[in-house]
Amino acid sequence: LGVNLMSNGAPWSITTLIGALEKQGFDVRPDGRYAMTDGDGGILFTLSTNVTLGADTTSRLTLLLDVPCVAPARDGFGQMVACAKALVARLDATVVDDGDQPLMDEALAGINGQVLEFYQEMEAADIPAGSPRAMRLFS
Known about the structure:
The protein has helices spanning 14-24, 76-91, 105-124, 132-138, and strands at residues 2-7, 12-13, 27-28, 34-37, 43-48, 57-58, 60-64, 93-96. By secondary structure, it is of the alpha+beta class. A six-stranded antiparallel β-sheet has the order 3-4-5-7-1-8, with helices on one face. It has a two-stranded antiparallel ribbon with strand order 2-6. The longest helix has 20 residues, at 105-124.
């Protein structure tokens, strides 16, 4: 599940962006992705700059939540949205969907409801999200 940030102005310099992402709490990964950890060694969500390694700028970031692999108690979606909103303020950006349409709070609340329903379905199927069984199946 992903949400995107689109620059409201000029593309962001990757060098400047890396500093802002690290200040936000992201860990830099060798593959060019950034991970927000849960404090216990797990990953809540990741962020992609949507450009190849070595690129100088980007105008779009994507935050990605691997829903089956994050326990509901971690509130991965809520934390991802909070992070996106913090980055919006820091980077002068807009939260958008895959079609570049702004995602308003009402739409994000609806998505959160769908995530909670999915967690209930996983629990009913005896595959709780974030459990070792879910990790084997969905990783």
